[in-house]
Amino acid sequence: MTPLLKTTALTVDYDQDTRMLQARGAISVLVQPALNKINQRLAEEKPALVREEDIVASTWLPPIPSGPFKRLVLSEAKIAIGRFVPQTVSIEVTRACGCACDHCLIKDGEGELETEEIKTVIEEAQDLGASIITFTEGDPLLREDIFELIRHVDPERSVVNMFTPGLEMTPEIAIQLKEAGLYNILIGVYSTGPEVHDRIRGVHGAHKRAIEAIEMALDAGLLVTMSVHVKGDGVSEIFDLYDYAKDLGVHEFSIWEGIPKSSEECLSRIDREAILRFYRKVNRTPGGPRVFASTYFEGQMLGCMAGRRWIHVGVDGKVSSCPYIGDDWGNVRDRSLKEIWSEIRESGDFDDLRSDCPAQSQHLDG
């Protein structure tokens, strides 16, 4: 057993052979339920990657063991007594992007946070307990300081994920991302058909460049996730997309529920059941990438994370509970992230556990 965490009130041991986490100590009763969920996933599902020194259960979780995972465990103890922690903080770092996607939420605005402002957000997010920091929107690779921002994240406290459409990737950039400390890169692929992906991205050749970006990132030794956002009419394609991800050799295939523009695009109960069946079948089958599905992770496992385990900082500094609900809790240019998080929690808007996506429900309710 490897001591993963040891304080006066809590010790967490990790058995590398059995892949089991066990809590001991005065507050172990608060932590063990969360560890049991992780243990169940480790026992029933294949991990994204097993390395000599650690195991990556999912690219959306810090490796076990690691400093960020220790913080995740401690934050679960706080959450168990009602002191919610923003374990994941996503930050939109730029409006710049080579794509012209219809679903883009920030293309019509102006301005973005400066380097020092984002660094302050990173520091405040880590002080609040964030274990996962994600850089996103539009294409972070178009920020000249992206490597500096990645390096500013203390690796003993948080891992860094980053979304990119892949248009700007080069072998040299992939190596620089690895050297800067990027944990996982997420590259969206909307279809196995180049013409469909290119139409969604609004750029001819976007599909080819996304695939090349995946290959470059893998060659550089990065963790790589191929991601897709699905709506009601696209669930059937996840099977072919997964086979595509398997052929590419990525570590995880990430399925997110797309935000509908109308009730017709909402996922039905049957759609979600199909995603869950796919999730369970693939993750219990040896070989190939692991599957992450927000339908499970933010549904059956943890419930909606918005305002409970997740906080989002927009490109202009506006803070929301997640990128999709559209709420506005203030701006990091005016107040600290800690003050804003306190207001979110004190509002009572996120007290109830939800197993559905509020952004989806907005269209169903309408």
UniProtKB/TrEMBL annotation:
Residues 83-286 form the Radical SAM core domain. It comes from the Archaea. The keyword RNA-binding does not apply. PROSITE patterns: RADICAL_SAM. It holds the Pfam family SPASM. One of its GO terms (biological process) is heme biosynthetic process. GO terms for molecular function: catalytic activity; iron-sulfur cluster binding; metal ion binding. Keywords: Iron, Iron-sulfur, Metal-binding, S-adenosyl-L-methionine. PANTHER family: PQQA PEPTIDE CYCLASE, RADICAL SAM DOMAIN PROTEIN. This is Radical SAM domain protein. It comes from Methanothrix harundinacea.
